[in-house]
Design goal:
The complex is a heterodimer of chains A (50) and B (695). Chain A is mainly alpha-helical. Chain A has one domain. Helices cover 58% and strands 0% of the residues of chain A. The longest helix of chain A is centred in the N-terminal third of the chain and has 25 residues. Chain A is rod-shaped and about 40 Å long. Chain B is an alpha/beta fold and 695 residues long. Chain B folds into 3 domains: 161 residues, P-loop containing nucleotide triphosphate hydrolases (Rossmann fold, 3-Layer(aba) Sandwich), CATH 3.40.50; 96 residues, Helix Hairpins (Orthogonal Bundle), CATH 1.10.287.1770; 390 residues, no CATH class. Helix content of chain B is 63%, strand content 6%. Chain B is built from 30 helices and 7 strands. Chain B has a 7-stranded mixed sheet with strand order 2-3-4-1-5-6-7, with helices on both faces. In chain B, helix 13 crosses helix 21 and helix 24 crosses helix 25. Classes of the chains: A mainly alpha (50), B alpha/beta (695).
Chain lengths: 50, 695
């Protein structure tokens, strides 16, 4: 049971990560890098390249 | 008779710039005087037939700017926007070039074809000014013609240039004032709202109107307020102005004017020796030292060293507290959750992974604070200027250094995107290729961890500075190689903005530090958390039954080696072995491609999984110190690899998009950075061994 829950969690994390990477390729940079660039345009979530 | 079409040319300029003299030289006796409709402002018109063309010159009223401060300014502006002259000749008093060019910054925002007539060039020369008109033309992207109105010099060249520009024999470039991220974002918000009402804007350019609104221009607010739905735009304008006022602790119109003068200062510093307005006098005095040919670079190096010294000195104890906190959290979680997969998931995956990255949060905050101080003071713009001279030697220019600095100040992603300011595609590609070499915020925890583990605390700032200098040297060296071997061609010219110096406000610094710091936490809590969990799973599965008679430590180590991640690590081990790393270094480096902080979180997870007794768990730094498979030399080779090797996945995705999108250049980037990283790391490790520095 414990193993099933953990593996499900890991799979969810993997799916979320893949979603992030797909978003990065689509150009929705800041939401995909988690805002890591530190300079994201917070309103529309797209990096303005500042 | 004029065989070709009629040409309308407007003459704009400051009062006393010699505009009327030039007008008379151009039109001779063929002129008439009237009034602009509805106002008492005088309107002078005249014509000339030149090279089979009838050219009608309209002498606009003399103005210092195109704001709504006077009737003259409104008349001049409306003529340019509504009558749409074919060419605008901006008459500039060359002996007072900086103040005169303020009008130019506004004319070019209106998007009209402009020729600059540098009048009174003889007076400028007598004053000892040496103006490089060709350089000025390249910097502003517009034709520049020196004239002396009083002696009728340059009139024919001016006419030729006007016709050539109209016939598109001369190309103009759109090089405008860079208002900086905060202001540009607000301009874009307003322009977006205006775009929805573009039908009623009577031909006024959107961005120009947006700037005017931010400047609180009375005419612009009245005009927009009168449009259907204008209230919404004015509401946003109030919001934007309020935000900018809080951010800069100054009125937006003052900051905008500063940016324009910064643009002018930059152009004039490159094209001549100068002194701007009185408010810029102090800046000029400081610049004489800071931008000095011989002192500029050492001062820049000193500033960077000061940033690292400040960061390492003051963040050290706080980083220690954070490490203790996460160590305690791991211990508590370990005691609270029954032993098993769930326990390992929380302690080794989540806490050790994310905690390893968050432990360096204070260091990142201190670093961002120090950088924000030099940014807000206006020094960082000078740093790019200082680097400009050096960059030219490497086939680039200071403008290419800005993306590198953005990368250092935060992340390679906005750094790569900032290369959009470079029009020359080759320059842009080279800059994009070398920007990821800089030490971004995500690489910082890796350096902090290894420097802390393998070098004396007082050496921290020195090593970090050395790494920073190395990153710049590698970026420049790469640029030179790429320029010579791959992207041959001439370097284009740009204006480097030099805003006046300011005393940064504490509020502004804290705000900037927190904005960037918060995003670091956000990234640790989202993407780093996801990756840490996946890395943990990679080391945990498939699970093997421990052999009988084997102690726990050996069993844990065997489990990791047999795991998915361990097998991948073993597969890449032959490639990293000559660099002094074992399979674990290889796994950390591979994981770091997802995000550079993950190198640290992977190390955290690996060493946490290797711990047998949670009560005796040691901080990651100490775990590394006590691991005999590491040494200062191996750590140096590892850091060298981290410094150079391929950027994180998001940065690569952005590179792919911004380079075309081009898979060819993206693959080249991957190949180039990997080969460089391997070669440099190999040199450090094997070279160190040969010199007997360590094994």
């Amino acid at each position: 049971m414990e193993k099933t829950v953990i593996i499900t969690l890991v799979l969810i994390c993997a799916a979320l990560l893949v979603r992030c990477l797909v978003k990065a390729f689509r150009g929705e940079t800041c939401s995909s890098c988690g805002g890591g660039c530190g300079l994201a345009d917070k309103k529309n979530g797209v990096c303005s390249g500042r | 008779m004029a065989a070709k079409g009629k040409l309308t040319v407007a003459l704009a300029g400051n009062p006393n710039s010699g505009k009327s003299t030039i007008f008379n030289n151009l039109t001779g006796a063929r002129q008439h005087v009237g009034n602009y409709p509805g106002v008492t402002v005088e309107k002078k018109e005249g014509s000339v037939v030149y090279k089979d063309r009838e050219i009608v010159f309209v002498d606009l009223p003399g103005t210092y700017s195109l704001s709504a401060y006077s009737e003259e300014e409104i008349v001049a502006r409306d003529f340019v926007v509504k009558e749409k002259p074919d060419v605008v000749v901006h008459i500039v008093d060359a002996s007072n070039i900086e103040r005169n060019l303020y009008l130019y910054t506004q004319l070019q925002e209106l998007g009209v074809p402009v020729v600059l007539a540098m009048n009174m060039s003889d007076v400028a020369a007598r004053k000892g000014m040496n103006i490089d008109y060709k350089e000025l033309s390249r910097l502003l992207g517009k034709p520049v013609v020196p004239t002396v109105g009083s002696r009728n010099w340059g009139t024919q060249e001016l006419l030729d240039t006007v016709i050539d520009l109209h016939e598109e024999k001369i190309k103009i470039e759109k090089i405008g004032v860079d208002y900086g991220g905060e202001i540009s974002a607000e301009i874009e918000k307003l322009a977006q709202l205006l775009r929805e009402r573009s039908g009623a804007l009577e031909g006024y350019p959107l961005e120009w109107l947006a700037v005017k609104l931010l400047e609180n221009d009375a005419w612009a607010t009245g005009f927009i307020g009168g449009l259907p739905g204008g209230g919404e735009v004015l509401w946003q304008n109030e919001k934007s102005r309020g935000h900018l006022k809080r951010h800069f602790s100054d009125d937006p119109e003052v900051v905008i004017a500063d940016r324009r003068y910064g643009f002018i200062s930059g152009a004039c510093t490159e094209a001549k020796s100068y002194s701007v307005e009185e408010r810029h006098d102090l800046s000029d005095k400081i610049d004489k030292v800071v931008l000095n040919r011989f002192l500029g670079l050492p001062i820049f190096a000193l500033v960077m060293y000061a940033i690292f010294k400040f960061t390492f000195t003051f963040s050290g104890p706080v980083v220690g507290w954070f490490e203790q906190f996460f160590g305690k959290a791991g211990e508590l979680a370990s005691n609270a959750i029954p032993e098993g997969l769930a326990n390992s998931f929380v302690v080794d995956g989540v806490i050790a992974g994310v905690g390893g990255v968050l432990g360096f949060f204070p260091l990142v905050l201190f670093m961002f604070f120090a950088i924000a101080f030099f940014e807000d003071s206006g020094y960082m713009a000078r740093a790019a200027f200082v680097m400009d001279r050096i960059m030219h030697k490497f086939g680039l220019h200071g403008k290419s250094f800005l993306p590198m600095m953005i990368s250092t100040n935060g992340c390679a992603v906005p750094g790569i995107m900032a290369t959009r300011t470079l029009d020359n595609k080759k320059d842009r590609l080279i800059t994009m290729m070398v920007t990821p070499f800089m030490i971004c915020g995500a690489k910082l925890p890796i350096f902090a961890l290894f420097i802390g583990a393998f070098f004396a605390p007082e050496q921290g700032a020195n090593i970090m500075f050395l790494m920073y200098a190395l990153s710049v040297a590698i970026a420049l060296g790469s640029a030179l190689v790429l320029k010579k071997a791959v992207f041959k061609g001439e370097t284009s010219h740009f204006v480097m903005e030099l805003p006046p110096y300011r005393v940064p406000t504490i509020q502004g610094l804290l705000l900037k530090m927190w904005e960037r710091g918060w995003l670091y936490i956000k990234k640790a809590g989202t993407i780093i958390l996801l990756i840490s969990i996946i890395i943990w799973a990679g080391f945990t599965f498939p699970q093997m039954e421990p052999k009988e008679g084997v102690n726990e430590e050996t069993a844990a180590s065997a489990q990791m080696e047999q795991s998915f991640a361990g097998r991948i690590g073993k597969f890449v081990e032959p490639a990293v072995r000559p660099l002094g790393m074992d399979w674990r270094g290889g796994v950390a480096l591979m994981a770091g491609v997802a995000a550079k902080e993950v190198v640290v979180s992977t190390m955290g997870t690996m060493y946490s999984l290797g711990e047998v007794d949670p009560e005796e768990a040691e901080p990651l730094k100490e775990a590394l110190q006590n691991d005999p498979s590491w040494s200062p030399l191996k750590a140096s080779a590892f850091l060298m690899f981290c410094l150079i090797y391929l950027p994180c996945f998001v940065a690569m995705a952005v590179f792919y998009r911004e380079s075309g999108p081009s898979m060819k250049w993206t693959l080249f980037l991957i190949f180039w950075t990997t080969v460089m990283a391997w070669a440099a790391s190999f040199l450090v490790y094997q070279g160190g061994r040969l010199l007997g520095i360590g094994g």
